[in-house]
Amino acid sequence: MANAFFSDLLATISERGRTLLRRGDSADTKQDADGLIELCGALLSGRGEASGTAMAREVLDIYQELDAAGRRAFFEGLVRDFGPDRERLSKAIEKWRTKPDDEDASALHFASEPRRQELIRRLNRAPGGTGDLVAMRADLLGMMNGHTDLAALDRDVSHLLSSWFNRGFLVLRRIDWSTPANILEKIIRYEAVHEISDWDDLRRRIDPVDRRCYAFFHPAMVDEPLIFVEVALTETIPGAIAPLLAVDRQHLSIAKARTAVFYSISNTQRGLGGISFGSFLIKQVVEELRRELPKLDTFVTLSPVPGFMPWIRQDKDLPLSDEDREILKRLDDPKWYENPETTAQLRGVIEPLAAHYFLKARTPKGRLIDSVARFHLGNGARLERINWLGDLSPKGLRESAGVMVNYLYRLDDIEKNHEAYANDGEVVASSAVRKLLKGEGRRLLDMRLS
């Protein structure tokens, strides 16, 4: 109710401001990038609250009418014309050099801020401005595509979005069959891990007694889930996704549930890519589940490994023998998983490779290659288990040769695991996973097969 009242109030202020603008401006605003840049300059010139809010809304509306070329020209104009005030910055630098103190340091800090940051803040005051800025950044990311000419603008936008979307502002809400249809439709559309085929499929995931779904929302985007988590309640830790999604599965009595499985976590807003919502989001979901179901004692994920097969195919320095490389060629057979001998041989190669992928493989900047691993380890989880043939869907076979993993969230260890990863880059993993890396897992597998 409070959010709705505030939104209505902003809309009223904006509309009255539009009236003032219409009275004061004799010529229509140019509907192109140059005209939009001029309007942004006027917005920064310091008008009253009502006209400023209306002008911000006008900027955002005109931007939405631009084509791709016009939007790029607008972004280039923001980079070119809305950097720091160079004269003011030079004076602040000289004053700091002459007499460095806290006051001069503060003045230097504010003088160095690009003018576009204040522009973005003023655009955010418009009704619906936050969501429009998130969508605008999605356009910006699409246009950067490895180019650096717009990088300065993206740094400014992401800097502000990181402040506005930190965890303290996010609200956790349960999604169930009584949730408004416009939000449920977005859950279907945004599901990025295991596609939701239709409304019946959605209902199977959120309505049964042994299923839960939670979403994080921002007060400025009350109908837009930012990230949502689908949960299955089970007796034990699962190693495969198909039984959890089966149409004809038997529902589990809550009295028997001891494990909560986070089997799908989807980020929904491309414009928030690279913006950290903070660590411990999953911990918040865990605590919510424990309040409702105190008998739950195990909290794990059943996670995909979307970058595993691309890594295998692109990395020429894999720890493989010639024999191993020949075995990997059997993955080219689209039905390889139906042959027991082939699957046994591939398992002996792929499981140790997966352990190496999670524990040793890094990007040139020293980060873990796998984005899912970065998310869960950053949230304080432990890499618990590598699951062979956990996902036999076409997508799972294509992206990870069917491999899935379990990350374990143990409440007493979450902060400690997070610190180990955040400070030292340490991957906290179970002994079973580490044995695979050392080759012990493969040796034991060979013994079982002999």
UniProtKB/TrEMBL annotation:
InterPro entries: Malonyl_CoA_deC, Malonyl_CoA_deC_C, Malonyl_CoA_deC_C_sf, MCD_N, MCD_N_sf
Source species: Bradyrhizobium campsiandrae
The Malonyl-CoA decarboxylase N-terminal domain, residue ranges: 82-165
Listed PANTHER family: MALONYL-COA DECARBOXYLASE, MITOCHONDRIAL, PTHR28641
Protein name: Malonyl-CoA decarboxylase
Transmembrane segments: none
UniProt cross-references to Pfam families, sorted A to Z: MCD (PF05292), MCD_N (PF17408)
Domain of life: Bacteria
Domain Malonyl-CoA decarboxylase C-terminal intervals: 168-409
